[in-house]
Amino acid sequence: MFRIGLKMLIGDRAKYITLVSGLSFVVLLFVQQGSVFCGLMVRTAKPVEAVGAPIWVCDPNLQSIDDSKPMIDTELGRVRSVPGVKWAVPLFIRQVQVRLKDGKFQTVRLFGLDNSSLIGRPSVMLEGDPAALNAPDAVILGKAESDRLGINGQFPKIGDTFELNDRLARVVGIADVPRDFLSNPYVFTTYDRAILYAPRQRKQLNFILAAPQDGVPVEQALQNIRKTTGLGAFSQEGMQWLTIGYYMKNTGIPINIGISLTLVFVVGMAIAGQTFYAFALQNERYFGALKAMGTRSRTLVGMIILQSVTVGLIGYGIGAGAATFIGWLGRNGRLAFYTPYQLLIISFGVTMFICLLSSLVSIQRVLRLEPAVVFRG
Amino acid sequence: MASTSLQAATGNGNGNAAILSKVNKSFGLGDTRVHVLKDVDLEVKCGELLLLVGPSGCGKTTLLSVLAGILDIDDGEIDVFGIRVDNLRQAKKTDFRRDYIGFIFQQFNLVPTLTAAENVAIPLLIAKRPYQESLKQARRYLELVGLGDRSEFLPTQLSGGQQQRVAIARALVAEPRLIICDEPTASLDGETGKHIMEMFRSIALSENRALVVVTHDNRIFSYGDRIAEMLDGRILSVHTN
After folding, report:
1. Hey, where are the domains in chain B?
2. Which pLDDT value is given to residue A171?
3. Less Cβ around it within 10 Å: N or C end of chain B?
4. Interatomic CA distance for residues A304 and A298, integer angstroms
């Protein structure tokens, strides 16, 4: 009988296509909006990923990586002396203004790396060598968004120069870096030079990168640092979540995307509910005939659930596939798009919920249906 | 007969397919209560085609419904092949219909998205017979009603007469012992109607089976073995053709 149920569904082409296309569109919107949200949130933490260090030490009141709460320089020595810490180096991160050759200004994210070790340097160089940072006025540019530093949208090349805080900066390398939420170009240089490139503040050191000694768990080292120095200490993942949490709490993005997702859900319910209702009305006689001929109500309910689950699965497949394809098309562009498996699971659950809730209308009608309806002319 | 969860019924010992005794049925409550069947007594014999006739609203279709176990009665007794239908619970009634009753409806009620063969196979599928085996059996019955070459047609591709023949094949395919027909010729022209009735007599009737046909159509009265006339919820007369 379940095969008959499927044929009843698929045989009614117009309603079947309406249901599947409606649900596909709903899933597409849901996954697309969800992926944009996840993409934006993940991008807020991209600077952490770009540097990459097992332990981040900072002011205990720091709210995100974009928050600058400098510490006194002696904190570096205190962290180095914490039991379980293998090494610790300074890191300077600040949004600063670049003066371009054409006189325009552009904000960049400036990374000042430890002078000797260059820990935190980009892991993938497209051109040049990180060691070239030892040359006078040397900077490495991240390729993403760096077209903003070139003339007429051209990507800067090795040897190009610009001004940072009235000081010369010369490009010695181009690195592959991720795009971040603020969409500013990345500029890497040494710690000492970065301090000169940024407007002067009373304290400059805003991050300390560290690593645990061999055999010491990161969490143990973090606890030791917090206890010994009173500073904030995070694993790389912890710093990423701190930043994501800040943007979740302090921007309108979750609300805006949440409203979109709610509307998508309502539209999905309306489309699926109306079509299932029409389907139920149209098939009432036939369900009545099946009931009269000896089909048990639970079999009919099973048929309806199978119909709704089938439509849901097909709609989900098409919608999620289309959304993923859109994300793939924009993978190298500015589109913030990230589809974690959790989003796919949630959207699958939402789709099934919409379908099953909508099919309740049909189920209710079938359960109440008197088989005697078949004798009405 | 298809496998049944009901106790095997061999009949009620008198060569009767069904016996209705003092059956009463009403709809509604209070002032709106309508007494549709009033102390109806009726016997349906094995091997006969019984016509149930009478004006609109006299209770023919209600009688058909209670006989088939579709509607519950207020009081009285309904015995079909030795089974007290009025005593069965809903789930058992559903099984009873599956195992003992074949239906032919005025509007055919063929599922429009299924082929003729699939429509005919439905009673077998309800009885949980395998799909392919059911289709094979359905095609055999379509051959029997002269539609062997139309088994893969959708109902919309068939004429009214052909659709009714598909409905007859569907009613017979599970080899039920009582076939209930509600105005089977009402949607057909005179010639087709006669042809359908001839088919009833030649294919559907057998020693162990009975047909009860509700009709307004006096052109087909001659096809009945007996005619029960109803008026205002009562059986006025039963006469033999």
Report:
1. 51-59+91-240
2. 93
3. C
4. 10
Average pLDDT, chain A: 88
Average pLDDT over all residues of chain B: 85
Q: With contact defined as beta carbons under 8 Å apart, do B59 and B230 qualify?
A: yes
- Name every chain A residue with its beta carbon within 8 A of the beta carbon of B125: 1, 3-4
Which residues have CB under 8 Å from B202's CB, separation 6+? none
Determine contact: B186 vs chain A, CB below 8 A. yes
Residue B4 has pLDDT above 50, yes or no: no
Chain B residues touching residue A296 (CB < 8 angstroms): 91, 94
The ipTM (two decimal places) reads 0.84
pLDDT score of B193 more than 80: no
Q: Do B65 and A293 touch (CB under 8 A)?
A: no
Give the 3-state secondary structure of residue A61: coil
Q: Which residues, listed in sequence order, are joined to residue B18 by a DSSP beta bridge?
A: B44, B80
Say how far apart CA A270 and CA A243 lie, in whole Å: 37
What is the Cα–Cα distance from A184 to A163, expressed in whole angstroms? 16
Among partner residues B99, B122, B182, which is closest to A290 by beta-carbon distance? B122
> In this complex, is the C-beta atom of B21 within 8 Å of any C-beta atom belonging to chain A?
no
Closest residue on chain B to A288 (Cα): B109
**Which of A50-54, A188-192, B204-208 has the weakest average pLDDT?**
B204-208
Q: What tokens appear for B110 in the block?
A: 């063929």
* Chain A residues with CB within 8 Å of chain B CB: 1, 3-4, 7-8, 10-12, 285-286, 288-297, 299, 370-372, 374-375, 377
Q: Which CATH class is domain B51-59+91-240?
A: alpha beta
Nearest Cα of chain A lies from the Cα of B214 at a distance, in angstroms, of: 11
- Residue B87 carries which DSSP code? G
- How many Å separate Cα B210 from the centre of its chain? 9
Question: What's the pLDDT tens digit per position in A227-284?
Answer: 999 999 999 999 999 999 999 999 888 888 889 888 888 887 788 778 777 877 788 8
Residue B61 has its nearest CB partner, among A286, A289, A375, at: A375
**Count of CB pairs separated by less than 8 Å, A with B:** 80
Q: Which residues contact A102 (CB under 8 A, 6 or more apart)?
A: A151
Q: Does B111 reach chain A within 8 Å, measured CB to CB?
A: yes
First to last CA, chain B: 30
| Residue A2, helix vs strand vs coil | helix
Of A280 and A198, the structure prediction assigns the larger pLDDT to A198
Measured between beta carbons, which residues in chain B are less than 8 angstroms from residue A289?
A: 103, 105, 109, 111
Question: What pLDDT sits at residue B2?
Answer: 39
What are the tens digits of pLDDT across the range B133-172? 999 999 998 988 888 889 899 999 998 888 888 988 898 8
